[in-house]
Amino acid sequence: MLKGCQIICNKPHTRCRRFTASLTGRIQYRQRVRASWRYVDVLSDLPKSPREYLEYFSSKFKIMGNSHTGHIQSTRFEEMLHNSIEASLRSNTVVPRPVFSQLYLEAEQRLFSNDSRLDEEDDEEDVSDSNSPPIPYQMKPPPEGCCTTDGFCQAGKDLRLSSMATESFEVPPGFLLVGAKSPSIPDHILVCAVDMRFLPDECGRNALLGFSGNCIGCGEKGFRYFTEFANHINLKLTSQPKKQKHLKFHLLRNAQGLLVKGPAICWKGIDSRMRHTVSNIAAGPDEQSGLGPSDLLPNSGHTTLSTINHTDLNTPFHISEGSPPIINGSHVPGLQQQTGIVANGPGRPGIIGSMANSGPPKKRHKGWSPESSAPTDATPKPPTTSMTNGNKAADSGASGCLPLGSSPPFAPGESVTVPDHLLQTCGLRPVIFKGHGTLPHLCGNLADVLVSGLLQKCYRSSQNLPCVYEPYGTAPIQPISTEMQILLTVYYLVQLAPDQAPQMEDLEQIFTRSWRESHLTEIRQYQQTHPQFPTPLPCLAQPLTPSQLPWLTKLATSSCGDAVLVLDTAPSLVEALEDTFHRLVEGRLSQTNYVVIFCMNRSQEIESCVVVTGKHQTRALSESLLSPSDCLREIGHELSSGSAAELGSYFSSLGPDGDVEALLEKASPESSAQYCAQEPSGDSPKPTCTEYFVDWHEIRPIQLAIARKLLSHVCAIADSSTQNLDLGSFDKVEFLICIPPSEVTFHQVVLHLWNSGVLRELGLDQDCLSVKDAEQYVVKLNQSAVGKINSLIQKSKMNPYTLFILVHDHAHSDITSAQYNGGDSSLGLVDSLLNCRQIRDAPNILTLHVTSFPFALQTQYTRISPYNEIHWPSAFNNDVDLYHEKTKYFGVSELLETMHSGSGLPLLRYDSSFESMAAALEERFPKLHSAVIRTHVLIQHYSLALMATAGGQTLQSLQKHISVETLEMMQCLLSTSQRCPSRHGHMILLRIPSPALAALAHQRLCHVRNKLGLHKQFEIILGDPCSSLNVGKHFLDQLKVWLKIVDPDWAPHTYLELEALPCILILTGMDPLGESLPRSLKYCDLRVISCWSLQRTSLEQELGLAAYLLKAKQDAQHGPHAPSDLSESDPEKLSSTDNEEEEVVVDVNNDSLANSSPTGTQCPPSNWTPLDPEKQPNQRRQSKSTSSGSSSSWASPLKQSCSWARNLSRPPVVLLPKAVYDLITTVDPSGLPKSTSFLPHSSVEWVSSFRPLLSKMMTCTEQSLYYRQWTAPKPHHMDGSNRAEGRNDNFHPRRLLLSGPPQVGKTGAYLQFLGILSRMLIRLMEVDIYDEGDINCNCKTDLVRYHQPVASWPNKEILSGMPFDYVIHDPKYEDISTIYSLDFSPNADDGKSRRQEDVFLRRRTARIKLSKYAAYNTYHHCEQCHQYMGFTPQYQQYESTLHTFTFSHLLLGEEIQLYFIIPKSKAHHFSFSQTGGQLESMRLPLTSDWNPDVIKSPIFTPTTGRHEHGLFNLYHAMEGAAHLHILVIKEYEMAVYKKYWPNHIMLVLPTIFNGAGIGAAHFLIKELSYHNLELERSKRVEHGSRPQDVWPFIILADDSCVMWNSVDVDPKSGTIGTERNVSLKQVLQHMESSPDITQYGLCGMRKWSSCGGGAGRQKEPFSRGHLHDFLLLNVDLTQNVQYNQNRFTCDDVDFNLRAHSAGLLICRFNNFSVMKKQIAIGGYGTFIIKTKMTDVPTTIQPSQYICAPDSKHLFLATPAQLLLEKYLQHISHRLFSLSARNYSHPVLSVDCYLNLGPEVTICFVSSRPHSINISTTGLLFSGLLLYFCDSFVTPGFLKKFQFLKGATLCVICPNRSSLRQTVVRLELEDEWRFRLSDEFQTANAKEDQPLFFLTGKHI
User: Fold this and answer.
1) DSSP strand pairing (1593-1597 vs 1545-1548)
2) Torsions phi, psi of 829, nearest 5?
3) What is d(CA 355, CA 118) in angstroms, rounded to the nearest whole number?
4) 1672, β-bridge pairs
């Protein structure tokens, strides 16, 4: 039976039942499954039938077959076993139900007498719970002068929890923070520190009588009596102070670090009548078995009764999953559940059956201490390394092993002597894993034994499993028991392979999976409902008992022979360990890999440990426990001390075939002559390879995409409300790239930087004239970096407008905290330099971390926000090339995919011959480090392979000393360069982490190569990060020729420059430091890397060396397959990648050689072999070549072609150690390689064993969130101190993380990012300004001079005598009707003949850099204008008030009610009534007032749809001067404008104007201003001022005015000088100070254009004409001239014409100009014309804007006025047919200007008396336009004008009746002919009040 337990079924789908959880596999009936057994040799020992099985097993259990309590009864066991086997053979269930619970006996009965005695003792302790009256008690009077305030101690220190929640204080080891309740202040909890020995556990037990406490407030210690302590903290009790009554709660720190009330202290546990039941529960749960390794576990559980108070069962030390541990004080109490077997030995059905308490004695004993009962230790060290209150939580010591010469903590009087010469005797150094309890003290020969706490940490971590389900209260789920932990450990060790070392991650997953499955019911119930008191669960099977553990563990180990030994009979660990050492010395454990020891101590608690005795396992564990520095130190010691010389002697003793030196002596140079280069004669030209090219510096599309992605993240930081980055304030970019201390990486980045063009982009190329000069922007992170970083900090302070980018490349290489560098100055530099306060707080420094392995930077306390992570995207999606790349990336995942391609050998391999040789030597030399042994074996292999290939030695004689893989690599290295005319070849990467071993390998291989005369065939390069490359002169000359370098002093500094050089690169250093390898890399030999580095980062960065950018096949799918070439020595590689073209573009069989050998002949594939130098008798190699060649046709081997060029589309072959190969090729349940579930980095730790596995479907972002949740930094991690009080995160706002696969092009991506960031900053400092010259220019008026060119202000008299320029010159009005003027004659090519669609073309703009006087939108943030914008705390949005302002106007016919939103900071601009605070008026200054820091004119800016992009921030434009700025907005936009501009005054238009145009806004602004002027005048008159003294001007400004300019005029010559930018304050104060300014109706300025300044010529400084966009409006003089509130377009032109006709002076300051920014969003010009039937905009022709009255036309949901204006703009050239392109016969427009399109000319006249009109004498008009005629238009007025015959009349009225009345009143029918069909209306519904118009022809 014991052997039968070893039988394992190889067919996972075979239906079988497991009959016991202790079996290591599924037992099938012999006749059914004979063909599937793995171990056939044991079948003969097995029974032949189920009944024989039954008898066989029954006999094995005879020793336990009694009826003693806790043992299995034989009869019932036989019955259950028989039923189980029969059911197993007939079962169809996929997952069989565990049956081992059937074998357990019923629950044992408790002795009620013992329980009663315990009840009596508990009752004696708690007298206060009785019903008797309280004992009167008088507290001792406090000392004189002390504090007696409630909540304070007598020293006057506050003890209340509410006050001390955020305080940091020390708690001595062994003490806990508890909360005391005082009757005088029932709402408060007082904070105390109490020795945990005097506190009960979660079941109300194990508390010492007495008290020991400290005062947290004043720090006084040593209170030995609770009465004394109660007096000190002023409890003021009226009864006897009792700790059980007044110490109520545990106090814990939550995830934010705040001290909070925890669970209640369980002074009296569960009712005494149920105490025997609770003892069973407290004995700890036994878990139901799971799948995999846990398939073999017994089905057990725990009993839960409905009468149990679940609150009492709660433990105060549970922590919630996914959050930092809740820590009490400075030390975490034992996370190992004390309700389990360890803490409650007597509560468990044991063999002894006694009820003696195993905890501390009931009375205080002087000699008792927590250490005296080790398994019940009250202060076990937690596995966490979190920092609380400034004190480091105690580490469990499980993270490593004890140093040599030291011993673990021990109990006095117990020690174990380690035998002398143990390592020499046994050939191994045993490793002792601490388990449960305290390990005995070791003494003696401690150098030959290692002690590790990893297993103990794993055990303790598994005790935290149920904490995940307790965030909302208590849960009925218990942790895994001690017995089950030991049993699972045994099962795990049993299933390990002979060459496999144990891994704690696997054991943790087994614990987790077992616990999950054993509590599946509770978990599901708890997940579905979260009640405060969960419903009782049904009674499950009995837990695993200590009496069952021995035979279950032995049953488990019976399947593995002697590999795992269980020692359970020793009375203590001391005897068991001594027995183990004796067995080791005697040689009885030679076949044993593990010894599992467990026993019961005096307190009836289990103690355990595991001793590793396997040679392979001990070596693996001992080397894995060494730190990298210790590993290098040990290797160096072995080499320097001569210990490694034994290996050389051993190789020399292998005989003539294995002695390298002897073989070299025999080797002749002639034997390698075939590989020597044949130099051509001096006269003949040297042949060259036409296929060689280098593309290191090409920027790929995906790199540009990543650069833009980085830029978008930077913009997101700037756009966020946190305002951590003000991009608008920077005008320049500077950078510094920090890299690891590697010479090659340094020059590699400098080379990329020099060739990227970034220095030129940033304007730094003037200082960098060579590659050497570019080195100032790259710094190695060693001591030399301190000065450069400090210089960067100083420059950032001196240049606040420069954005500094600090790039941290290869960011995972040094994450050590500066406080934990251990005296090593090279460690912790990143933390001290890049995480310093100066960089953290500098607002203009942005840090970019770049790494291929970001896992160590993604922890719970990371400094990088998950929103600031940028992950490298996949270039392909469903085989679609997203970025049109010329290359395809081939990385780690693609390497692993070749394992499953099914075609030939995969690219990822291990060398079985090498592994067997190394394993034999490791066993022979146990004292030597495995890296030393493996390196020597590798040197031997390479040396002999060179001799076999080129040294004339026969392969048969050397075959047993070399491997096929090594031979293949050397043959390829020597032969491929011979086929290329330029001698291009491949690179072999030999990775040796130890620098000493790498130097040894370099020396030995160079010696062998030189002896063989191959020193000109290939180079051997030592790649040491601390030194530069050293290449021989011969190869240096070759590289110069290939790279076309003429510099005689040039030498390669990077591996990339070794492209196509045949060489062996020996790369050393403990970790790769970001060195990129050339594409000529063909073999990546990693056979010497550490086999025991079980971190994801360390494994993947080694594999990342083989990452490769394949040359994409452009013609792979075009034409027939071209012949391939098998002239290389890698048939495995060819065949292994045949089917990989879809993923990695490795299409070997379709390899096109059209460029190199277009005429290559085809040879039959069968039995064809390559060139003679590659012929070998090795059958394995020949078969592979034949197999590869059978699938395609081959090119002629006689044709020379460049093998290097063909290899660009093939990834390298990777050779791994067997142990590493097994790790990364093993797939975990989630489908990912097993290595992905390893700890991501040695500087982090898992926060819980209860974590899910990474999923194969996870994206990079999801992986980041996974590590952020489940990993925490260790104390020596630089993020270990990044914990903010009261916050869950402490992200740095200006820190980004770019992650991508190794060698994918991240350097080029972030260099491009620097370039486009610089361009964007320049772009942010620039805006698109309309740059259009004046239109309709008239040279006649320009020749007339009125003012002197140097005049600063206009002269009123001179200006009055100047003619008014009717012609519009603003280029934005190029598409409107020209206004007729006698002084203007249009040119033939004036643009009026352009097509209609040209009107909508984009207007001309220019890129202009913003000056310091610019106006800004809401995206501008700077410290100067934060208060102006209202973003400071004192100016919040809610600090604004809404006021109503009402006035009446005749044109509107009703009172107008406007709303003002006035921030409190702007309330001083307004007057309010003293009663009620009603808004009365807006304050206006006097004309005589003058203040250089005040603008007198209120600024009104009508705006719509531009709450983000409107230029309303005038702080810089005004130079900080006080001004009144009012935004005029529509009612429906009030909320959004208030949100973006909280400190601006808003004037909200009435609801009826929500759909109105710009005319309505201008109308209300002007009329409101005049009404306000009247109110202010009446107030001033009351104070003695004249009405005309009040300032009458307002400013109407467009929301796109961005900058203002002034032209300098030479005072002597009067010529115009340069145009410079000035502030708006300067412009306005100059205009406001003009003489007689109040006599002007309007003042304005010209629009800027690049040619408008007219530098070098004279120009009139002032003129009369149209003003646009920025007006200084006199509301007093323009009282009778109103803006047309109905207008949508050209309302300013209409107003200018009517203001001039009214006799008002309009002055334009030509020396000032305004720049208008192009804003594509919003504005009054964006109106959508749509139908009334749907809200979806549709294409509607302008002819459909009108219709006949009363017709069934499609009505439009657009204002009638807008439809009319748009109709006239597009159709008037047909309506006024005689006017089209007829400037001499314009259309007469009375009292208004309407745009009739660019082909029609309008002559404006006013009907007002005494108005100023143009002379129309002798002018014949081609049409008449009457728009809303008033009473001033009479028949006599119209008879003054002459019209052409057939001229068109258009009369427009608001309704149909007024239209007819107008025709009759003006007697139009006398001279005009009308038809019924000539009456129209706008296409509006009746309720929308359409406009009507009538057309007619002149008779």
Assistant:
1) unpaired
2) -65, -40
3) 10
4) 1595, 1643
| DSSP per-residue codes, 375-423 | GG-SSPPPS---EETTEEPPP-STTSBPPTT------TT-EEEEPTTHH
In this structure, the strands spanning 732-739 and 1213-1216 are: unpaired
Count CB neighbours of 1777 within 10 A.
15
pLDDT (average), residues 1891-1895:
95
- If we measure between CA atoms, which residue out of 619, 1175, 1229, 1205 comes closest to residue 928? 619
Retrieve residue 844's tokens.
């203009």
Question: Which alpha helices (DSSP H) does 987-1062 contain, by range?
Answer: 995-1011, 1033-1043
- φ, ψ of residue 1296 in degrees (nearest 5): -120, 155
Q: Are 492 and 502 in contact (CB under 8 A)?
A: yes
CA 841 to each of CA 793, 1395, 1435, 1606: distance values in angstroms, whole numbers, following the listed order: 11, 59, 25, 40
**Euclidean distance between the first and the last CA atom of the chain, given in angstroms as a whole number:** 127
d(CA 643, CA 635): 10
Distance in angstroms (rounded) separating the CA atoms of residues 1525 and 1519? 14
Instruction: Specify the pairing of strand 1405-1409 against strand 1162-1163.
Output: unpaired
The residues, ordered by sequence, that sit 6+ positions from 17 with a Cβ below 8 Å of its Cβ are 26, 84, 85, 87, 88, 89, 91, 93, 96, 99
787 burial level (CB within 10 Å; 0-12, 13-18, 19+) = exposed
Query: How far apart, in whole angstroms, are the C-alpha atoms of residue 1439 and residue 1434?
Result: 8
Under 8 Å between Cβ of 97 and 19: no
Q: Averaged over 306-323, what is the pLDDT? A: 34
- Which structure tokens are listed for 1898? 């002149």
What tokens were used for 1698? Answer: 């009517």
Per-residue model confidence as pLDDT tens digits over 1021-1035? 999 999 999 999 999
Instruction: Tell me how crowded residue 235 is: count the other CB atoms within 10 A of its CB.
Output: 21
Enclosing H/E stretch for 754: helix 743-756
Closest to 1147 measured CA to CA, from 1118, 1184, 1171? 1118
- How far is Cα 565 from Cα 1040, in angstroms, rounded to an integer? 66
Antiparallel, parallel or unpaired: β 387-388 and 391-392: antiparallel
Q: What residues are paired with 24 via a beta bridge?
A: none
| 1596 φ/ψ angles, rounded to the nearest 5 degrees | -100, 115
Strands (E) in 223-355, as ranges, are 247-253, 259-264
From the number of C-beta atoms within 10 Å of its C-beta (0-12, 13-18, 19+), residue 210 rates as middle
pTM of the model: 0.66
pLDDT tens digit sequence for 484-518: 999 999 999 999 988 889 988 889 888 888 887 77
Nearest residue to 1629 (alpha-carbon basis) of 1485, 1492, 1487, 1489:
1492
Query: CB-hemisphere CA count at 13 Å for 589?
Result: 27
Token pair belonging to 1028: 């530069």
Q: What six digits make up the tokens of 1011?
A: 């002896």
- State yes or no: pLDDT of 390 exceeds 70: no
Q: How far is CA 1466 from CA 646, 693, 1526, in A?
A: 90, 69, 10
CA 543, CA 1307: separation in Å to the nearest integer?
Answer: 59
Q: Which residues touch 498 (CB under 8 Å, ≥6 apart)? A: 563, 593, 614, 616
How many whole angstroms separate alpha carbon 1773 and alpha carbon 1779?
A: 7
Q: Distance from CA of residue 1494 to its chain's centroid?
A: 49
Type of residue found at 721: S
Residue 86 CA from chain centroid, whole number? 57
DSSP annotation of 1290 reads -
Distance CA(1604)–CA(1037), nearest Å, equals 63
1372: alpha, beta or left? (left if phi > 0; alpha if psi -120 to 50):
alpha
DSSP structural state of residue 97: P
Q: Look at phi and psi of residue 623 and say left if phi exceeds 0, alpha if psi is from -120 to 50, else beta.
A: alpha
Task: Please name which of 432, 796, 756 lies closest in space to residue 621, comparing C-alpha atoms.
Answer: 432
Give the integer Cα–Cα distance in Å for 1354 and 1340: 21
